[in-house]
Amino acid sequence: MQAQYASNDPDYLSCKKNECQKYVDGECVVSTCGATLSFHLINIRTGIKFVFFAGGFETPCILAVSDSASFANPQKPLYGHLSSIDSTGTSMRITWVSGDDKPQEVQYGDGQSQTSQVTTFTQHDMCSSILKSPASDFGWHDPGYIHSAVMTGLNPSSNFTYRYGSDSAGWSGRITFRTPPAGGSDELKFIAFGDMGKAPRDPSLEHFIQWSFYMDIYLAYHAIYELIRNIFRDYVSSGSVYITPDSGGECGVPYETYFPMPTAEKDKPWYSIEQGSVHFTVISTEHDWTEKSEQYNWMNNDMAAVDRSRTPWLIFIGHRPMHSSNHGLLLYPNVDNNFVQAVEPLLLANEVDLALFGHVHYYERTCAVYKGDCKAMPKKDENGIDTCDNSNYTAPVHAVIGMAGFTLDKFPSDVNSWSLVRITEFGYVRVRATQKELKLEYVNSSTRKVEDTIRIIKA
């Protein structure tokens, strides 16, 4: 539920918009003060009512209720987002949401098209416990129908246009995208960020927002290659490593339906992909990573099999970090030492160059670190930029990049020597990789200025 105070209109308290509601003998005896408020709404395929109430959220007193306002086209295909399905750069998956359960299609290139596969999920697919979870109870919102189709026959590093939908439900606009470079080619450019969060685009407050409605908003503004987060997966008796209520009972079901990644199967959201000169190993910190577990064996085998003559850079990606100056809460620490002890040796043994994490809401970049010790410090190049020479490999550089929009965390006054750069501002990182250099830059999203740069090179 979104709500705004009537006083958000500066003319309300001064009663500039005065309207008489009752006259007696030609004189106004009851007048009201009016306010005009604007709400930013997204198409959630159901009717919207506006309620005027007093008493706040805890003791609301309803004064008036509007008629239901409907969206012009509840069936409209929306929120299309792309994801790679392999390392060739010749196929791309497009996923979108519609109120229509009939197959639609994506039209692309020069007259090519693919029919969508349609799926959805229900309230009964949500996790719960003795007490009903929000996602299975008051927080439920119908997700509509999720359409997915794979565009094939593409060329890597090339521009294409597409649209998705149907004649009956409507069509998206025409959108241009560029396919990624094939694995083993030279240059790759990408941006990365974590913990985008969610906030209204108007002055609204939110109260008991529906979990699946959150996913609608997430889809409306998110175009990403995803990895699973605690807020999407964790819940009691769900099989998650962490027994927290963070997902509200979603247990990864909406996430994996909305964001199909190139994983082996459902609820095993770890995968790898190669683009340009980079091999990405993406894991789930919310699923079992202990030694000899399925995921542990997979990540070890995946990284050990990387052909460094083809993809010289190995980037490891997970949600919960291995190193963070902000320790979190006593019972809910930001860094799980068991995770670090189990998985960090794999990064060193397989010579991971860069490890990217989220979960903590700021930007923090380390030296080449292992077990809390700096194994090598970067040196300044001729332009004053921190540079690590991985021709003589020592350990991976870690970066926490959870500064994409959720409430920012603070750094303590005392930090460890492995923490080289700390920025508490919203932003993102952009990365450029060639066969010889991996360059990471932190960009402040408010100023658009680069506030940190590190180069990792190989002879």
From TrEMBL:
Q: Where in the cell is it found?
A: Secreted
Cofactor(s) of this protein = Zn(2+); Fe cation
Record-annotated Purple acid phosphatase C-terminal domain positions:
395-452
Alphabetically list the UniProt keywords.
Glycoprotein, Hydrolase, Secreted, Signal, Zinc
Query: In this protein, which residues make up the domain named Calcineurin-like phosphoesterase?
Result: 282-363
Name the source's superkingdom: Eukaryota
Q: Where is the Purple acid phosphatase N-terminal domain?
A: 79-179
- Per the UniProt entry, the Enzyme Commission number(s) are 3.1.3.2
Q: Name the CDD domains on file.
A: MPP_PAPs
Class of enzymatic activity (EC top level): hydrolase
Instruction: Say if the entry is tagged with keyword Signal.
Output: yes
Q: What InterPro entries does this protein map onto?
A: Calcineurin-like_PHP (IPR004843), Fn3_PAP (IPR040974), Metallo-depent_PP-like (IPR029052), MPP_PAP (IPR041792), PAPs_C (IPR025733), PAPs_N (IPR015914), Purple_acid_Pase-like_N (IPR008963)
Q: Which reaction does it catalyse?
A: a phosphate monoester + H2O = an alcohol + phosphate
What residue stretches are annotated with the Purple acid phosphatase Fn3-like domain?
Answer: 2-73
Family, according to the entry, reads as follows: Belongs to the metallophosphoesterase superfamily. Purple acid phosphatase family.
| PANTHER family registered for this protein in UniProt | PURPLE ACID PHOSPHATASE, PURPLE ACID PHOSPHATASE-RELATED
Q: How does it assemble?
A: Homodimer.
Q: What is the protein named? A: Purple acid phosphatase
Q: Which organism is it from?
A: Coffea arabica
What lineage does the source organism belong to? Eukaryota, Viridiplantae, Streptophyta, Embryophyta, Tracheophyta
Which gene name belongs to this protein? LOC113724296
